[in-house]
Structure prediction request, 88 residues.
Amino acid sequence: MLAVSWDLNDPPATITRNRRHVTIQTFAEPATSPPLGFMTIAIENIPWKIRVYASYKTYITLEDVIQTIYLSLRTNIAKSELDSLSQK
Prediction:
């Protein structure tokens, strides 16, 4: 299974694997085994689920997962949602 290091505050281009930048080929690898066309990610203390879809292949890639997480965590939320996060 592929393991990468990534600070979610930083853009996906900063992702490393064994302290080296991730190659285009690695980003194109299936994110799951067996390969899936869709998956849902639930993160504790975040009130929404992150839905990842395959972008250009029949399966979701590492790039699909990383880009979807990155964009999802940069979505503007309502004050009420922010307040609910602060209470957890």
